[in-house]
Specification:
CATH topology: Glutaredoxin
CATH class: Alpha Beta
Radius of gyration: 15 Å
Mean pLDDT: 89
Order of helices and strands: HEHHEEEHE
Strand content: 15-25%
Number of helices: 4
Structural class: alpha+beta
CATH architecture: 3-Layer(aba) Sandwich
CATH superfamily: Glutaredoxin
Number of strands: 5
Oligomer: single chain
Largest sheet: 5 strands, mixed
Number of domains: 1
Low-confidence stretches: none
């Protein structure tokens, strides 16, 4: 950092990241970040989810992480819970698939059936 402007830009990025992770009553996205998930690439998946939500300026979505959910063979795992709809759990989600989930499921309301490992009411 060399200038006050650089510091201000860093602060804005940090605030945006915090806004994306805050709880809301809207859609919730949870990325499995246990050691099994991280080993399978969940950091890249989480980054892609946050980046895509930010790029599309989608509001009323909270993004959080969780530990191991017991389905290590399916990692990286992403859960999407939309108000009034069943929770959808996706498996083997890399960064590219995560971006497609944001576009198709979050933006257009269409579940990406080929990666679904479970749904819950």
């Amino acid at each position: 950092m060399k200038t006050l402007k650089d510091l201000e830009e860093l602060r804005k990025k940090a605030q945006e990241s915090t806004r994306l992770r805050e709880s809301s009553e809207g859609t919730k996205i949870v990325v499995g970040m246990g050691t099994c998930g991280i080993a399978a690439g969940a950091r890249d998946t989480m980054s892609a989810v946050m980046d895509e939500i930010s790029k599309r300026d989608i509001e009323d979505v909270s993004i959080t992480q969780t530990g191991c959910v017991g389905m290590c063979e399916q990692e990286p795992i992403v859960e999407v819970a939309r108000p009034g709809l069943p929770k959808v759990t996706y498996g083997h989600i890399d960064a590219e698939k995560a971006r497609k989930i944001i576009a198709q499921h979050i933006v257009n309301g269409q579940i990406v059936g080929e990666w679904v490992i479970s749904t819950q009411d």
